[in-house]
Design goal:
- By secondary structure, this protein is of the alpha+beta class.
- The protein folds into two domains: 62 residues, no CATH class; 51 residues.
- It is 35% helix and 32% strand.
- It has a three-stranded antiparallel sheet, with no helix packed on it. A two-stranded antiparallel sheet has the order 4-5.
- The radius of gyration is 17 Å and the shape is globular.
- The model has no long low-confidence stretch (mean pLDDT 96).
Length: 114
């Protein structure tokens, strides 16, 4: 199957003199996103040649710790959802969600289950 169209997602990171992120903006023209501000990003790219995930994790200096905890919590949940869609392994996806709940409780983001 030949590529019919290309779509671009652009991420721009503004760095200070020590190469620490000050700003993160992104564009996704097909999604209607233009010059949108972000405080952090997590991206994984699968390297098929080496069978490994290449990662980029960036956050700005003013990213709040509580927001970082929320971001990780929501990422764990979305990873479980994506894993379940990709593999139909509902049992392991449920285990991943259990860990997300544990993380949420330990960080104080959600109330402990009774």
């Amino acid at each position: 199957m030949a590529v019919q169209k290309e779509s671009e997602i652009k991420i721009t990171v503004g760095l200070d003199e020590n190469k620490i992120p000050e700003t993160i903006t992104w564009d996704a023209t097909d999604g209607g996103v233009s010059n949108e501000q972000a405080k952090a990003l997590m991206m994984g790219v699968w390297d098929d040649k080496n069978s490994e995930c290449l990662r980029i994790d960036l956050w700005t200096k003013d990213m709040l710790m509580d927001d970082m905890k929320r971001m990780y919590h929501q990422t764990f949940i979305s990873m479980a959802d994506g894993y379940e869609r990709a593999t139909e392994d509902t049992a392991l996806a449920a285990d991943m969600r259990d860990f997300a709940r544990y993380f949420g409780e330990k960080t104080g983001l959600i109330a402990p289950e009774k």
